[in-house]
Description:
Oligomer: heterodimer
Number of strands of chain B: 2
Strand order of the largest sheet of chain B: 1-2
Order of helices and strands of chain B: HHHHHHHHHHHHHHHHEHE
Structural class of chain B: mainly alpha
Radius of gyration of chain B: 23 Å
Structural class of chain A: mainly alpha
Distance between the termini of chain A: 58 Å
Strand content of chain A: under 5%
Largest interface: A-B, 22 and 32 residues
Strand content of chain B: under 5%
Radius of gyration of chain A: 19 Å
Helix content of chain A: over 70%
Amino acid sequence: MSTREEQRHMTGLGARLTAAWLLVGVPLGYGIVMTVKKALPLFGVE
Amino acid sequence: MSALSFLDREHSCAPRGYSRWLVPPAALAIHLSIGSVYAFSVFKNPLVERFDTTPTAIAGVFSVAIVMLGLSAAFGGTWMERNGPRKAMALSATCFVTGLLVSALGIATGQLWLLYLGYGVIGGIGLGMGYISPVSTLIKWFPDRPGLATGLAIMGFGGGAFIASALSNELLQGFTSRGADQLPTDALVPTFLTLAALYAVFMSYGVLSVRLPRDGWKPEGWTPEQRSPGGMRTTANVSASQALKTPQFWFLWVVLFCNVTAGIGILEQAAPMIQDFFPDEVGAAEAAGFVGLLSLFNMAGRITWSSTSDVIGRKPTYMLYLGVGAVAFFFLATAGSTSVLLFVALSAVILSFYGGGFATIPAYLKDMFGTYQVGAIHGRLLTAWSAAGVAGPLIVNLITDSQRDGGAAGAAAYRPSLLVMVGLLVVGFVANLLMRPVAEKHHVQCEPIEAYPHDLEGASAQTRAAGALSEDRTARPTAGGRQ
């Protein structure tokens, strides 16, 4: 694989990795935030 | 070639240049979806009203789903190893989504048995196959950090409940045309249909993006350890059927059963328990917050403790779960009612160990039995989860009720059941102490038999991966292998 091809491959892989982790990370983050909000009354925070 | 041949094991092999860090998101897509089963309680009251039945009858749907999870994982594990993760994940997605659709039909037509069939039986099969297939694949991709890898996936099962709980509430409120003081019964069908569509897309991503490592692949710069302290990690392999004949499998079964029973005992009673311990300080909103906090620690424990086990070893990690867990339960029983903060802190530690126990067990199995049929062995071990799911609530409810009948109230009513959990954890601790390397007579070696018919990117020297082999024809005993 030439250097240019290698660079293109690495850029594509980086984008794919970012997209993949965002796809699962965003819903998970949403779920965690909602659960933290639900837990707040335990500490006297409404 | 059939239209579905892309699901075959030989088409799931990773091309050159593929990053193994693409596999955890694929695994998470499945686990985040099937983990929604733990948010089933969101639908409980609307379902009770829709079917004009008892809460127990609706709770039965959840129980059937969990039993089917254990059974399908136990009986489908070998099939999964033979057919590869993509086909198993596709089966999981199909069953899970079909289960939601059949449930919607049952709700629309007012037939409770369709809810049992859909959510409980068909959906439950999807849970079992979906639970084990990504775990086994991750272990193959991360031989250097199996605890981290399985922790990531199994953390998703805990996280899925958060997402589903919040999302289902939003959907129910969005679809209902009834007032805020009424149950959103009319929103059940569109909510189930919407969830089915969302999970179909999300799980399909996991199915399409999961890959198996090429035969002989290993992480760059990583070489298997030649020795591990106490010889508790092996490079040898044990088949699923042979694993059942080893004491190590049954010790681990006891370890998982005790750890899960203790955790479920708290989890199932969390809201009423904290209110009974502190009747003047904790109301319904705070109790709901306590349940949410425990769920967070349950999820955090899965990734944190499982990753830690890669560093300190699996046996010491379980000594921590069971030993420190027993101490925490003891203090919960004897001093838990003295302070809300102490009660919450001890419960949080216990729930983090509960989650950690689930997430670390696949890596422990890999250490003891190798990667050959680790998914199938994991599936069979999950019967301990099903048994604990029955035993945990039963122990707490029976003992607490008998204490109340005897006149005990508040924290005193829970004390005996919490002390029973201490005893259970001690039993688990002893079972873990008894863990030794698997005897060499149980080892098998898988011989390469043929190259992949649809070779990817010139990987022509590949051989069919271990799980695709027929145990009887290709496995032969081998000497050594234990490190």
